Amino acid sequence: QNETKEEIAEETVKVKTTRTTKTKKTTVTVTTTVIPQDEQVKEVEEKLEKPDSEMKAEEEQQNDSEMTTPAIEERSADQDQEMKETDASQPEEKTSSASLTMAERMEKLKGLRQKMNASKQANRADLMTEHQKSKINKREEAKKERLREEAEKLIAKRDAEEAGEDYERSQFWNYSAESVEKWNEKQEAKRIRMDNKFTDWDQVNHKKYLKQVGELKPNLAAYNAKKEAAMHTNEDGELVVASDSGFYRDANSVAFLSDDKPDTLAVDRLAADVAKQIDARTRFSKRRAQRDDEDVNYINDANRRFNQKISRFYDKYTKDIRDDFERGTAL
Prior knowledge:
Blueprint: H1 2-10, E1 15-20, E2 29-34, H2 37-49, H3 52-135, H4 138-163, H5 167-172, H6 177-195, H7 201-214, H8 220-230, E3 231-233, E4 239-241, H9 256-259, H10 264-283, H11 301-327
């Protein structure tokens, strides 16, 4: 036992190291066990104190463990080899799938760029078109069109005179008798309206009434149907309107309240006409001249309009104060 203790004292500290090497994705584990010298001595003493039977059993267990360790090491080596092969094959598969995905992405990006360039070109073309339209003066264009028509008319007159034809008569060939008659009636009505200058408000109201009546569109089909229903044959065999039918009635008659109910379209036309008149009245703004006797309490047109708005809302409250200031009796 003493010799064994001396041998243990002379031996260096045992270091048990376990190293496991795996692929790139696995970690390296290092396990180090340091047994102090005193603890080793105690372990040896305990072993020496044990019976021989226990010592033999422990030696057999150690031998069995040593025999099974190579098999485990072989298995672990095989597993490591399989893991290496798997890890080596996975990057190739990922690379191929990534390359396909990248190609698809590049193709999609190329298509998007083409659409973007096409939209840019279309927007630029529309912008140039709008810019060219903004340069066009409508009044100048109308003036040019009028001058062109006058030039064409002068050329046509000259050609007619050279051919010995009447230009005015030749122009009538392009219009029918009905269109010429309507044109003459329109010009006559225009002349009458121009002759009616302002005299009083009654004349203005009558003129407006005639204008509104002229815009009415009577339903001749319904009128003729009612007329046929009211007609009958007299003793002489002639078709006449019955006097008791109320078709022809005087101004004092109220029969239309019961037998002349308007349809929905007529009511809608009336409502639209009333709405049109209301809208025209709201949009009407007569430019009023400046009065000489009006107090000048503004510095420019904008200030004048602002003062007028203030006056419309607050003059009724400040009238007494302003009158006191004018009389000099303000406190």
